[in-house]
Amino acid sequence: MRDAAEDQPKQRQQEHIEPLPLFSTTDKNGRMTMLLPGHRVGRAAPLMPQLFTAAALWALTGSVPFGALLGMAPTPAISMFLGHPVTVGVAVLLLLVAIGTTGGVYSRSIEQFGQTRVAGLFATLSVTGGLAAIAGILLIWMLTSDLPRPFDLGAIATSPTIPPELGAVVGASFALWAAITLLRLPGSIAHARRRQADIERLRVEGSSCPGTLTAVNFTNSWLFNLPMFVVEVNYIVDSTPLVVSAHMRTSADRVPIVGSRMIVLTDNRGTTHVELDLASGAAFEPDVGKYAPSDG
């Protein structure tokens, strides 16, 4: 069963962001974490300007549907302005810019934290936060501009036109979504930073052992159209043969075959990290369609 399905441009973007294949001896799917060689453990601060910019763009874009379509404009004149074809055209252009900026937030998040789960939360927060903010601003502005008008959620079912109460409910849904995302983000960031710190420590202080990929088992699942596997790596420590299992995420054209050379990093804490030894010349599955997701 597929974990997530996205289009081909999303897959290509994902492949450019992180080196594939990606391995993890502890996590799977979106929690798998990478640390590019030479990079430090990620920080949230560098992402904040782009995150707030994306949220502001989503807020500006969302002012048109919330104000004109859902009736949350504070005055009829503002409602007509937000519904004007020129304003709608500008909003569409802002939407395209907002989507591109959100994609930049996603990419920068992966560069910082090496994890699609954290990147997805940052991107989601930029969208939901911006839409919730504009809905809240318009609602407060509308209520303070038209004090005699009662605010009745029952109008959603009884009004012959689209009432502003519906916009308030939609905005509250985005606000709840943003709040849940915000609550999940600190724990996800902490998890990614721990994993990156482990990888950084292993590269500096750990023992590096040559290994061999001895099993590649397809899980019949995908993440962003990237097939997921469970692999086994054999290596030797002090003349003792050992085996470590790991989850692997890669693209359909970069599935290493059994016998590929691996690098196994270990320490005395029992932490293990595995990487494909590209310097030794990696060989990949020649049938590039073998692990591609079906359209069905």
Automatic annotation (TrEMBL):
Record region (Disordered): 1-23
Biased composition, class Basic and acidic residues, residue ranges: 1-18
Residue ranges crossing the lipid bilayer per the database entry: 51-73, 85-106, 118-143, 166-185
Annotated keywords: Membrane, Transmembrane, Transmembrane helix
Protein name: Uncharacterized protein
Organism, scientific name: Cohnella phaseoli
